[in-house]
Amino acid sequence: MFFEKPGCGGNARQRAALEAAGHTLERRSLLAEAWTRESLLAFLAPLPVPAWFNRAAPRVKNGDVVPEELNAETALALLIAEPLLIRRPLMQRADDGSRHVGFDTAEIDAWVGLNPAITAQPSLEGCASPTERCATPAPSVA
């Protein structure tokens, strides 16, 4: 499973890297998922609270939300209420149920394997450029 923000260019590059390595993805909208405390913690619990957040989200970038100042319960409630704040992608393997947050190239290669041309890149995490508008909600498609 690949939880993404529909329309995000960064997520599109991440999907392409996984598919180029032969992985089949079940794509889901991170924004439309009915997250619960338990379902979100299944992904986030191993990480420190600040690593739960999408640093490109407008409320994080403008300082309205400061992940380093939040405890786990407050952060979790905020992420459930505003899924745009969740670091993406969230991924889960079908074969063993293991989960991963974000797209550090070396970590993803060790976890599921990537094409060597991709692993030469330091990371596919986040947007490719500061002008790319990944943090804004994509228009809905009916």
Automatic annotation (TrEMBL):
<dbReference type="InterPro" id="IPR006503">
    <property type="entry name" value="Nase-assoc"/>
</dbReference>
<dbReference type="InterPro" id="IPR036249">
    <property type="entry name" value="Thioredoxin-like_sf"/>
</dbReference>
<dbReference type="InterPro" id="IPR006660">
    <property type="entry name" value="Arsenate_reductase-like"/>
</dbReference>
<comment type="similarity">
    <text>Belongs to the ArsC family.</text>
</comment>
<protein>
    <recommendedName>
        <fullName>Nitrogenase-associated protein</fullName>
    </recommendedName>
</protein>
<dbReference type="Pfam" id="PF03960">
    <property type="entry name" value="ArsC"/>
</dbReference>
